[in-house]
Amino acid sequence: MLSTNVHMTIGRLTYYNTNNMTTKYPDLPKMPHCNGCGDCCGPTLANSKEIQRIKDYVKVSKIQWVEHDDPTICGFYRPAAGDEAPKCAVYPVRPFACRLFGVAREMSCPHFPEDATVNFPPSKGYQLGLMTPSDRLLCQAFAPDGGRKMLNAVKKSGARLQKVTQELGIVHEGGYMTKN
Questions:
Q1: What digits encode the pLDDT tens for the residues 64-88?
Q2: Does a structural domain hold residue 103?
Q3: Is 50 within a domain?
Q4: Phi/psi at 53 (nearest 5 deg)?
Q5: Short-list 180, 95, 102, CA closest to 141
Q6: Confidence check: pLDDT of 180 > 70
Q7: CA of 177: how far to CAs of 3, 94, 102, 134, 174, in Å?
Q8: Strand-strand pairing, 176-179 and 87-88
Q9: What confidence category does residue 179 fall into, taking pLDDT thresholds of 50, 70 and 90?
Q10: What pLDDT, in 10s, does the model give residues 110-119?
Q11: How far is the C-alpha of 71 from the C-alpha of 22, rounded, in Å?
Q12: Helix (H, G, I), strand (E, B) or coil at 118
């Protein structure tokens, strides 16, 4: 059974414990102007611990990956519906890459670039073990087609993932993202 998402901050790292899987993330500021538009909810890399934590959360919470008209949108993004604001279905256990978006200068929000106040180069993510050479896209772990639709759309459009992975020096090989 999934334990409560517990977190505590020690120094500059926050420790998240979900189902006996502790992950430490650097403290990051909130993104004060986020309006939930979902522009950040594209192809997202996650390490094996993050994927397992999300799998546990999805199973207990009965959350499904949803295909969107735009195949480059994350299947955990839920657009606004009725009185409900847009949201991330796995927000409490979202990957580190999602936590960085909008607050790191390297991943600033196109709508609110002033909210990006933290320098967090990819090399720091690798040093802290938050990014690994075997990171995978969430769609590869959760989409019914193993992420093929999203990967094909990214390749065709030259979309967000290609830009991000080029900056990080990561290439896609055999269903995994690998560091050059």
A1: 999 999 888 999 999 988 888 888 9
A2: yes
A3: yes
A4: -60, -40
A5: 95
A6: no
A7: 30, 18, 22, 6, 8
A8: unpaired
A9: very low
A10: 899 999 888 8
A11: 31
A12: strand
Residue type, 3: S
Helix (H) or strand (E) run with residue 157 in it: helix 148-157
Q: E-assigned strands of the chain?
A: 6-10, 13-18, 21-26, 45-46, 77-78, 87-88, 136-137, 170-173, 176-179
> Under 8 Å CB-to-CB from 129, ≥6 apart: which residues?
none
Q: What percentage of the chain carries pLDDT values higher than 90?
A: 21
For the whole prediction, is pTM greater than 0.85? no
Q: Is residue 53 part of a domain?
A: yes
- Compute the chain's Rg from CA coordinates: 16
**Segment 29-48, tens digit of pLDDT:** 888 888 888 888 888 888 88
Question: Token pair of 54, please?
Answer: 């999300």
Number of domains the chain contains: 1
Residue type, 15: Y
Is residue 127 a part of any domain in this protein? Answer: yes
- C-alpha dihedral sign at 12, 115, 34, 49: negative
Query: Across-strand partners of 87?
Result: 78
Q: Evaluate if residue 10 carries a pLDDT over 50.
A: no
| Two structure tokens written together for 36 | 């939930």
Q: Which residue range is the domain that position 167 belongs to?
A: 29-179
Q: 153 is written with which tokens?
A: 């759309």
